[in-house]
Structure formats: structure tokens, C-alpha cells
Amino acid sequence: MNKIIECVPNISEGRDTAKIKAITDVVETVEGALLLNVDPGKATNRTVITIAGEPEAVIEATFRLVKKASELLDMSNHKGEHPRFGATDVCPLVPVSNISMEETVEYARKLGKRIGEELSIPTYFYENAATVENRKNLATVRSGEYEGLKDKLSNPDWKPDYGSTSFNETVKKSGAIAVSARDFLVAYNINLNTTSTRRANSIAFDIRERGRAKREGDSLTGKILKDENGKPINEPGLLKCVKGIGWFIEEYGVAQISYNLTNISVTPIHIAFDKTCERAQVRGVRVTGSELIGLLPKKALMDAGYYFLKKQNRSLGVHDEEVMKIAIKSLGLDELAPFNMRERVIEYVLEDRMKKEKQLVDMTLSEFTNETASESPAPGGGSISAYVAALGVSLGTMVANLSSHKRGWDDKWEYYSDWAVKGQGYKNELMRLVDEDTNAFTLIMDAFGLPKGTDEEKATRKNAILEATKGAIQVPLSVMRVSFESMEVMLEMAKTGLPASISDAGVGALCARAAIRGAHLNVKINAAGIEDNDYNESIFKESNEIEEKAHELENTILELVYSKI
Hints:
Elements: E1 4-7, E2 10-11, H1 17-25, E3 33-41, E4 46-53, H2 55-72, E5 88-97, H3 101-119, E6 123-127, H4 138-141, H5 149-154, H6 169-174, E7 177-181, E8 186-192, H7 197-207, E9 212-213, E10 234-235, E11 242-249, E12 254-261, H8 269-282, E13 287-293, H9 298-311, H10 320-331, H11 341-344, H12 346-354, H13 365-373, H14 381-404, H15 413-448, H16 455-496, H17 502-527, H18 533-564
């Protein structure tokens, strides 16, 4: 898979839709860069934009966006609730897949250098891309905001990394920009049943890592305590890697706490939410819901869903989208507007935008059946075997989930939940193999289609056919392995699962055995085209052993089922 990065430029315009569109339209003039999300805010007068793709394409698209924003926006007229100092205020790059933070830093510096040199915009590097220790914190870099930029540029300590060092006409209009490489940051707002910014701030100060100035007596009105140097003594907040302030959102008529969760591995969204609920209640305020700005990783919602399911003593072995629905409802993410996970989860957005052809697993049952019955040779027995096995372990997983909710078995819910989670893992892998088998067949057809005129072409074609055929053997062999492993779920459910669903465990075992026998046929027919006896011998040895063991395990499971019916 290619290297993928994300860029999240924030522009200082959230009200003029024509300008926002003109700025964001330039992104997709670059092949390989995808405009994933545009999230304007009227009160903040700021738009959060998400771009993703291969690194070179992303930084080219981002440069064009920064250039267009500098042409269309005038910072000398800008007003908004959010701190800012430039038309494109911040521009963080985030590693998404197959790329390190160190590589991402290099791309950030390449982008910042180009912005400074070609557009003359004062450019500061922060967080992981920072070249000076005291510039790592964005709040420090942006201190004084746009209104203080003239004084900042005149201070030698705040010379930009690149770009103009004077507050000339260009800079007066464009302001400055902060460029970084950072981990995934989640911008997360929590809604309160109050209009009081003061109360929202007091809760935010309880939570955020920086905390608040320590006071004598009352934490809100008492005298600020200072150290021997006359500096205020700080009282840290409850959660690490959290920045937060309170504000009033006129658009919604409520106060919010606006958080930046800078490392969701340390403080995930569900912990920030629950701790905020606790501190709000102490102050006589209620949390009514929350709001995510821009996109977030799937893992963030999955972790939240699991967290709330555990609190309810409910099984975690359900489909990913069901887990995320629990998270959405528990966090109140749909209070202010509908929350569509296909549009807000970065993996889904990338998947939908990059997908070229409809996959078998995305088809309806009727479509899949009709496609199988057509005159096309794919999908064939390998894909069907994988799908039958997926259905089999789904039945075993169903028994585990039903057992976890049985009245009187409350002390066993976690045990059955663990088995359901295992079942979901097997099911997901088998569903992947449904399309993998068809892809392997396509590679064989492609290899047979290679030219065969010269001796060199014949040799290349022969080798390509051999490698593609070996790949086509490995896929059904994987189906056999995973199908056999999945039978542990049906065995355990036949032993300990809900008695009323015992037959479903048996049907699941029958499906797994059928899948193993079917995949074995594919292994054998594909191996017939390979003139490598040693290779074939090792393949047949493993596949024969799996089929024999599966036969024995099927009998064991069915004996248990029949004994209990």
C-alpha cells in the first residue's frame, strides 16, 4: 500500500461559502490528493479542511490552497472566536499509513519552505516540525494572534523559519502560517445546558492538562498564588494531552467546552467526555451532547463504543458499525446535527473515495448470487468457500452474543463477549478472503495475457503465471486455515452456549467444514498447474492435515449438539 498522509489546514473564513469553495476547489486539481472534509464554523469564522493522499500530492494541493487563501482572504478585516494569526492559520501534516513521523516532518518542512519562499508568508514550524524548542507549542507560536504579528516580526527571537520578516502589505493581508507534523489531533466540543462562558471555562480548566492558576480559598475568586519569582503557581488539570477553553456559541445558543485532544492514545474522546460530565455535575451543569470537528480515526469511535458497552456489561463482539453507533449515541454526537460515520471516519472516507470497483462483499445477497451464477468464471469456489465459512462463524458468534445476554448469566457476560470478539475477528478475515480469491484469479488471467513472442517475453510470462498461480493457491489455503481456527468458537458454544441456540453452533460447524472441503478443491486444482513437486508436496501435506482435523472436530461438535437437542 502507498504512503498516505493527511493535512488539516484551518483557514480564517467560516461564513462566506463562495470563498470557502473557491479555496477548497483547488485541492482536487492535483491528482492523488483527495478533499475529504470541509467543516466551516460561523461563530469561530474558521473552516477546518481535511486533505489526504500520497505525500507529494498532498503537499502540492496544500500549497495551492494556501496560495488561494492568501489571495481571497484579508486578515486585516477578520473577526472570530478562535485564536488565529493567518489566512491559512495552521497547517498540520499527519501520518496515516505506511509512513513514519520522521518522514512526515520532512514533508512539513518542505511545504513550509515553499510557502515562505514562493508566497513570502511568514512561516513558523511547530510541534514535531519545530526547529526551536520554544516553538513546539502552537499557543506559544500564535501568541499575540494577528493583532500582535507586527510586533512579533520585529522581535529577533520570533524571526520566522521562512518567509517575510516584516509586516509589509502582503503580510498585512495574509498574516502568518504555522506548519507542523503531529499525531492525530481530535478537535472535540462538549455541549452544556448553560449559556455561561465562565462556567464552561471553569470545567475546561478542571480537565485540561495545563489546568489553572492556583488560588487561595475559592478556586474562582480567591487570590492567585505566586512562587518566589512572582510567577503564578499552576494547578494541573485532570487529563494529559488535552487543551481546552470554554465559549458561547451563538449559533446553538449554548456554551461549549472546546477541546483539542492531542494524543487520543493517552486521553481518548470517551474519557474526556465522561470526566467533563463529572466536573459539570459538580458545578450544577449538565452535558447534553458533543460535537466532533473534521474527521477522526475509526479507532477513536471503536474504543468509545467498547468503553460504553463494557459499562453496560454488554458483549463487545458485534459488528464495527454497531459499536460505533453506541459511541455516537453515548457521546451525543448527533445532538446538533446528524452524524454520518461514512463521512466523518477517515478510513471510511478514504475507502469510499479510492474504491474503483464494487467489491463482492459490498454486494447484496441477490447481487452476489447473480454474479456467481453469471457466465463470468469469478467469483468461483474459493470465494464461495470463504463466504460460507464467514456465515458459519457468524452463527457461532451469534450464539456467543445471545449467551452473554441470557438472564441469570450476568456473571458470564465477559466470557461470552470474549468469544464473540474472536468470532468477529475470524468473520472479518474470511470476508476479506472472499474478494482476495477473486483478485488472485484476476492476477492469473493478467499473467496469461502477457506477450509471448520473444524468448525473454516467454520466460517473463511463464514466471508471472507461476507466481500468480502460487498466490491463487495461498488464498484458498488461508481460507482452510482460518475456517478451521474459527471452529473453536462453534465448539465452545456447543459446550457452554445458550441451550436454545445449540443447533446454530452445529450449523456453523457444518458451514466451516464445507468451506474447508471446498477450499481444498481449489488448492488442488490450482496446484495442478505447478511443476514443482517439493512445493506441491508441502502444500498438500498441510491442506490434507487441515481437512482431516476439521472432519474430526466437526464430528466432536455435532456429537455435543445431538446430545443436547
